Amino acid sequence: MRVKNASRLRYQSAQSACHASASVHRQPVTHVWLQPSLNKDYRIKHNQSIGNSQQGASTLLLALFVIAILVTATIAILLGHQLGYQRGYHALKTETEQATINSKEATNELKDLRISHKVLTNQVATAKQELTISLANLDDLRQKQQALKVDNRQTSQLNDLYAEVIAEQGGMPLQVLGAKIDPLPENAFEYGFDVGMLSEDGLAKSLKVTLTLQDKDNFVDVPLDPARYAIEGIVRIRGRFVMPNGFKPLQVKLSLEAGDEQIEQLYDWKLGNMVDSMPLSLMDLPEVDQSPIEP
């Protein structure tokens, strides 16, 4: 419609300007002015169509780009959320497991502490009982010790009385009250002699002791430590010696000398039965027995 209106306007202008030539050139003028208009409109429409197409493509590309960004962001958010969730879950799971382990260890330690507490409580109770028993035994020992002191004083007093009576009656001559020789390990022997003497004046005298081992042809003096004693009543002579290798005594001679008195006592060498409880070494032997020797 726009093309036809423009042709009519142009045609009327040409007819009013030159009427004579209008009839001759009507058709060419119309053709000349109509063709450029049509081309121009076509180009305008074509350009508009191309522009609209380009604008639509740009819009589509922009929309696709935005959608891609949104999809990528959504995927990234989902992946980040998934990874964060997994990491958090594993971390929480690890912490929970560690807390469970720590709780079990704490429970076991608490049980051990309770057991240790019970053991210590029992030990304390036992220690208290032992302490009570020890104190009771100590008190009993003190009482017995006190009783022994009293008995010793009484015995000493009685012995002094007997010594005075014996001294007034002329004293007690030098004599052997008991003798023994016992075998020991490693070819050793233990000797013991109880000797009694009380002089007329009641004073202590120096006692010299000699011990000799004899066979048919030889004799061996046994070294005594000590070899001298102060005798005022009863003296207990004790010691040990080692028999010389290859020497087999037949007799033992004990020589005593105190003041103006001298005596010699011969004993046959006899070995008794083997003692089952005898130690294997001299180092394991106890101290020499100081108990009185039975006659």
TrEMBL record:
Coiled-coil segments on the chain, per record: 103-144
Q: Which UniProt keywords apply?
A: Coiled coil, Membrane, Transmembrane, Transmembrane helix
What residue intervals traverse the membrane?
60-80
Instruction: Tell me the protein's name.
Output: DUF3251 domain-containing protein
Tell me the organism. Psychrobacter saeujeotis
On the tree of life, the source organism's domain of life is: Bacteria
